[in-house]
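User: Can you predict the 3D structure of Type-4 uracil-DNA glycosylase? Sequence below.
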Amino acid sequence: MDKSLELENLNKKWLEECQCELKKTATQAVPGVGNPDADIIFIGEAPGRSEDKLGIPFVGAAGKFLDEMLELINLKRSEIYITNIVKYRPPNNRDPLPEEKSSCREWLLGELKIISPKLIIFLGRHAMNNFFPDLQISGAHGKLLIKKFKGISTSYFFPLYHPAAALYDGSMREILKEDFKKIPKVLKEIAKRKV
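Assistant: Sure. Here are the predicted structure tokens for Type-4 uracil-DNA glycosylase:
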């Protein structure tokens, strides 16, 4: 079966079966979007207001900054896949609760399994802590993490600050851009390790 169709079926299944409490307050689910054959998956935290309205991840101000950074390394949205750990917007953009993350986890793992990327990039601490609960984003950002997880094809993870952080704190912009510029080198390093 073609990956696009697999993702479509996965989303249909979880739209019905997901037990996330956020379903009650969100306008709609925001499943991941992008290239089903992508080498890179970006994982954010949760949909915001614009995402909740349009049903597409990273379409607000943080998404525009993400697009800018993708341009820095000659990548287009059509070449990557982007999703969130939680598929429904938390009220007033509060942090997702552990049980909300847990309710959406199988949906996220399903996306990762189908796409089978070479590299998973975490956008922010919530996405990173979903896989690496003991790490601090301040120490881990811009560094390649290598760990095997059951049911995930890649062992390569790259945490970044969330693009929204750069919108609130101008000094973060440069850090995020510098970290972003490391992505092509990280992909080359992964390719070397696989040989």
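Residues 98-115 form the longest helix (18 residues). The chain has a mean pLDDT of 94.
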